[in-house]
Amino acid sequence: MASDDDATTLVQLTLAEKASLCLGSDMWHTAAVERLGIPSIALSDGPHGLRRMPDGGDHVGLSGSLPATCFPTASALGSSWDTALAGRVGTALAAEARAQDVAVVLGPGINIKRSPLCGRNFEYLSEDPMLSGRLAAALIEGVQAGGVGTSLKHFAANNQETDRLRVSAEIDERTLREIYLTGFEIAVTTARPWTLMCAYNRINGTHASQHEWLLTSILRNEWGFDGLVMSDWGAVHDRVAALAAGLDLEMPPNLGVSDVAIIDAVRSGHLDEAVLDTAVRRVLQLVRRATGGSAGRDEFDVDAHHALARDVARDCAVLLKNESDSLPLQLSSGQTLAVIGEFARTPRFQGAGSSQVNPTRVDNPLDELRAAAPDGVDVAFAAGFTLNGNADNDATLAEEAIALAARADNVVVFCGLPGSDESEGYDRVHMRLPANQTTLLPRLAAANPQLVVVLANGSAVQVADWEPHVAAILETWLSGQAAGGATADLLFGLANPNGRLAETMPLRLEDNSSYLNFPGEDGHVRYGEGIFVGYRGYDACDQQVSYPFGHGLSYTTFDYSDLEVSVAEHAAVSVSCTVTNTGPRRGKEVVQLYVGDLITSVARPRRELKTFAKVDLEPGASEVVHFSLAARDFSFWSTRRRDWHLESGAFEIAVGASSRDLRLRMQIELESAQVPLPLDEMSTLDEWLADSDAAAALRKALDDGGVGESILENEEMKRLIGNFPISSLAAFPGHGLNHEVVRAVIDQRRALER
Length: 754
Ligand code: BGC
Known about the structure:
Shape: globular
Largest sheet: 6 strands, mixed
Structural class: alpha/beta
Bound molecules: beta-D-glucopyranose
Helix content: 25-40%
Distance between the termini: 36 Å
Number of helices: 23
């Protein structure tokens, strides 16, 4: 999106001014060039609410940011599986950004939840790239429609906090493409974010900030990204190398170092000034986008945004378990509800670090429960445990809580991870709740079997050790400043839970496929599990899990019927099914479509989420849900072809309520054009024979060489030597495949590939 104005401005800029534009002016602003009327624009975290630092504010926000609405964090929003909802959050973020004169919101973050331990999982959407990409795209569209930019982050493979500024994520290209880049690709190609933020870490040895293959070949050349790439805060190590790789803006500015390095590199001829000009053009374009609208400053409606945060939080919570319809609570006048757990009066609703919002207000769950309870219901409270695990206090608090539970009609226990467990900057080391909570639960259950647990945590926790004792579990994640009100609505049935897990709840940490490799050592982390991340890994190993990806209950029930699938040319597949609300209440269902490749030449996940839809149905109502799939949805990244590859054969389309609750299935056959594999003298005999043209060429070369096809006729021999490269076979005498034949066949192959 080049503009004539930008071109005119560019020629008027001095070398020093150009260099200055490729660095911020301070922690949160781009540089201005007053002489030419180029203003500075403000950047601000973050993904689920603004963290606009007052001018002169510090980096980590110790001095406090301007009050803003704290919406549910990404792990909660991810569980909504609701693109329209993500769009509404985006619209509200834009309004707050305009009110606070923020040009670019630094989010969303869509790094894949490779391990439940990543300290920033609460800032990320899912373990699945398609779900992450679709939700991120909707949020970006919402923000940018309001005249404010976004910064999709952190590009790429920033999946842990341990050693995050140096660690090299060692990943093969197929894994990178299928798991760690796909979400970015979806968001970039559908929502066109104004900016993208590179990651801190290295990828296969190269800093993300200097990774030309990522920042230019893939991002711009393949995906057509036309925005600006900025660094994560402090991610630049060699400003000139980063510029050459495609990193336009360094944040915060390494003033007196990076600008000088750019100027010197241009003067000495080490950096082509055209490269600098390209980056400057992108900065000018960003400034123009940010200042071009009519937006201007306006106020945002604090109450309306708080109400929106409550609506959103309601649609993010996941009802994991609900034995004997324990929820919604059915209490009447004269009865007692025991509310137990320090989190009920000291709520945990966001994580720590750069995304930490200074909320405009915070709902207190206990107060909200009291307000929502039917008249005459006594809502009594006991803390039950301390947040910092003080053994003496915990013993007394537990006794008080047990006594309260024993006399109550229903018990709701607010459990979760202490704030110090989840933060930017470090990872967790286990996924258990604190012992003062897990030991209390069975004791409470012995006093009162009607135990409901409300969870507040930003990433998957182990539930297997305590969940047999409880009747119901409502996972609320870190659901923002209105989480308390939303929880009260859900517990009393004023709202019907409709979130679905965007990350698996494994039985044990050890079952997670990254377990042996996370978080690596000596500056390296091997992504040894490859594409088998999250449910792809649990499914491949037939592992039982506590709650599978996509799971979530409702106060109503849904029936699936009438699956129809039609296949058109180029693997364009249309799918439809009918979903009916068969229960007593209005409710929302997330209809999930998974694809599995039934016969495949490479290792593939048993099934992968390819699309989904959320439907809102009155009792008895039905809706026909339509989906479209394309060739890419059936393809894998072929390392040998260096391209997406659709393999002909049978695929399963499965539609259902979770990755392990598939209600409708159908098998289809897809035909794809055979793309010739690159073959050379190091390709094995089997590889040559697997390709019909190559096999024919090999037979012809043997015939032409007058040596016959003896080697190809002996099946037993072929099994034995099938994995020999043909050049190695040529060194063995007596079977006819000699060096002349190899040369001839390679020549024929080259001719075919041209
Ligand atoms: C974080 C980014 C954040 C930036 C600015 C970095 O430490 O990784 O996500 O946007 O700081 O606060």
